[in-house]
Amino acid sequence: MNRVGQKIKLARTEMGISQKQLAKKLGVSEKFINEAESGKRIVNQNIIDKLSKILGKSINDITMSFEEEVYKEDRTPKSSPITKKEKVQDVWSEAFGSVLKKVPIYKYDMRTVVGFRQLPLIDNKIEGYAQDKVMYVQVESDDMEGFRIQRGDLVFVHSTGEIYNNSIYLVEYSGKRELRQIKKLDSNKVLLISSRSGIRTETIEIKSLKIIAKLDRLEIKL
């Protein structure tokens, strides 16, 4: 368990909530919280900030460690004056410059970039996928609000052509692109499920459906 994981677990237990309850508040799986607390998963800064708000306690241990290191350096005489701010920037650049990757945030057309997120690069992969296969998509409608996915939220996705039963995808059909849960009916047909003020289903042929990307994680607005 790393120091960030320890702080998450301590704050959660002090708050008196389970991993499942924290996962629901954060909009992630219970497995994500378990792996974060045990140190098996790297938690990015965006998630750390959200966890701090939910738990009512700062868990940004990385920043604290860097500040402590800068303070130590400040006590050592230098031949030329360097500000504390410059030292903090140098520490961050050295620590993360080679391991963070800018991941684009797209609109549904997958051409319009509306921003970027930085994610850790491990073994030349991001979240276990090739770098060129991952991206974020900005949700453009409330069609999936029954799945806690609302307009303005960000979803982390990876491009694929495979269909996994009951998973949520960005798909194209009937001349439009939407987020839909897919349920296989047979080798030729699938059920597309959305949920805005109730469950809505559409049955279409697989050959009429274009799979754009599979959703892996939701980042909600707090």
UniProtKB/TrEMBL annotation:
Keyword annotations: DNA-binding
SMART domains, A to Z: HTH_XRE
Gene3D superfamilies per UniProt: lambda repressor-like DNA-binding domains, Umud Fragment, subunit A
This protein's record includes keyword Cell division: no
Pfam families, sorted: HTH_3, Peptidase_S24
Span of domain HTH cro/C1-type: 8-62
A GO MF term: DNA binding
PANTHER family xrefs: TRACRIPTIONAL REGULATORY PROTEIN-RELATED-RELATED (PTHR46558), TRANSCRIPTIONAL REGULATOR (PTHR46558:SF3)
Protein name: LexA family transcriptional regulator
Record organism: Clostridium autoethanogenum
Taxonomic lineage of the native organism: Bacteria, Bacillati, Bacillota, Clostridia, Eubacteriales
